[in-house]
Write a structure and sequence with these properties.
Number of helices: 5
Mean pLDDT: 76
Order of helices and strands: HHEEHEEEEEEEEHHEEEE
Number of strands: 14
Strand content: 25-35%
Strand order of the largest sheet: 1-3-4-6-7-9-10-12
Distance between the termini: 20 Å
Shape: globular
Low-confidence stretches: 1-53, 91-97, 117-126
Length: 418
């Protein structure tokens, strides 16, 4: 149903999507694998949704009531340590159009199961929730995660990112506050930050993570609200235990149901693993984002309980125009000083091959209000799985992304599928 495209084009697009392919990530420290949280795909809300008769894999709704009558008091932070983008460990063995099912990561975002199987046919409609490209099927639980196809032609795409996170080079941080510490809490706050590495890495040295809840991660100022005077929070500002680093991307009405955390930040979520990796301005902007994961209590060295997250996922709608335009920030490894631009004569064929494939995967509208109105498909559904371990907020450390390499008199390079 989807067309093949060259491995070279696929690899270039993969460099944009997430910093997962950096073979030059050196100095990854050896760590004790027993410190890692359990892997994805061992149950949790996604597996539970898939086990029923309905085809809709939905996140848990808020609990009817809290397990405790009083308000929550716990505040804690987790840092992502593994991601799962469903990558194939042997590039070339599984291509995007091979028919092999995608991994069960993510949720039904548009309340529509396209191309459902007999198993769940009674609860499904067919035809898709938007028009404008070839029909792209959900899985048999209705999960919207079609962009995972792009990662399938690159070997060990998740492994490189995991090595970098576990070595303390970069991560995504979640701060949970107002939590009552039980299986059900109808009102918690969840904030998302991006880190450019453990505290100390900004000095150019090697920092060894402990993976015991004491690791302090830097916070990128692009994810912190401006000061009262309108300025940016200064470099080196301490974020842990202070109010200096107010988040931009936050859900003050998140909840925990049967031990599963759910957050729905209203703002478009710019997802990146920090800008320290040498891949240009790779950025994934997701609309209608759902952050979910099973809370995992951990006892560390006889001390107080800390929290981790297993069976986690971040899902959303990735506008194809944003994806295509952001290709212009990706350096071309074959031509020094060149970027992946549709106007570049050396890369035009490569860019258009990537564009053709990306546009063929459009399966969802960019905003929820357009679902099932037969509006044009203008986005790709995306979901990545993750696990996270207990951590601490450190100090502000920002690494600005390089500018687009495709600037002309007309301005920055941009493109759409239309």
């Amino acid at each position: 149903m989807t067309s093949r495209f060259g491995l070279r084009a696929a690899t270039a697009v993969l460099g944009l999507l997430l910093p997962l392919l950096l073979a030059w990530w050196q100095g990854c420290n050896v760590y004790n694998s027993s410190l890692l949280l359990p892997g994805i795909g061992e149950g949790g809300p996604e597996a539970a949704a898939d086990a029923g008769a309905t085809c809709l894999a939905k996140w848990p709704q808020p609990p009817a009531q809290n397990d405790l009558a009083d308000s929550g008091e716990e505040t804690w932070v987790v840092a992502m340590q593994t991601v799962n983008v469903g990558a194939n460990p042997d590039a070339g063995a599984i291509l995007p159009d091979s028919g092999t099912p995608l991994p069960p990561i993510g949720f039904d975002l548009d309340n529509d199961c396209t191309c459902c199987t007999e198993r769940s046919m009674n609860a499904c409609v067919t035809g898709g929730s938007c028009v404008g490209s070839s029909v792209v099927c959900d899985d048999d639980a209705g999960r919207d995660h079609i962009a995972l196809n792009i990662f399938r032609v690159v070997p060990n795409a998740s492994a490189a990112a995991n090595a970098g996170m576990q070595a303390g080079q970069f991560s995504i941080l979640l701060q949970v506050s107002g939590y009552n510490g039980t299986l059900n809490d109808a009102n918690v706050t969840v904030a998302l930050y991006v880190s450019n590495g453990l505290v100390g890495i900004q000095d150019g040295g090697s920092v060894t993570p402990h993976h015991d809840g004491t690791d302090m991660w830097t916070v990128d100022s692009h994810y912190i609200a401006t000061t009262q005077t309108g300025g940016t929070v200064p470099e080196g500002t301490a974020c842990n235990g202070t109010s200096a680093c107010q988040p931009i991307y936050v859900d003050n009405s998140a909840w925990v149901t049967n031990g599963v955390l759910v957050a729905r930040p209203e703002a478009t979520l710019p997802l990146t693993f920090g800008y320290r990796a040498n891949i240009g301005g790779a950025l994934m902007k997701l609309n209608d984002t759902v952050i979910s994961g099973t809370l995992h209590p951990i006892e560390v060295g006889g001390g107080p309980r800390v929290w981790g997250i297993v069976n986690g996922s971040i899902s959303g709608r990735w506008e194809s125009a944003q994806l295509l335009s952001n290709l212009a920030t990706l350096p071309n490894p074959d031509v020094d000083g060149s970027y992946l631009c549709g106007t570049d004569p050396q890369l035009g064929t490569l860019y258009h091959s990537a564009k053709t494939y990306i546009c063929s995967l459009q399966d969802i509208a960019s905003i929820q209000a357009l679902d099932n109105t037969m509006s044009m498909c203008d986005s790709l559904s995306m979901s990545l799985g993750f696990t996270a371990e207990s951590a601490m907020l450190g100090t502000v450390y920002t690494v600005d992304p390089p500018p687009s390499g495709c600037v002309s008199e007309a301005g920055l390079w941009s493109d759409t599928c239309q």
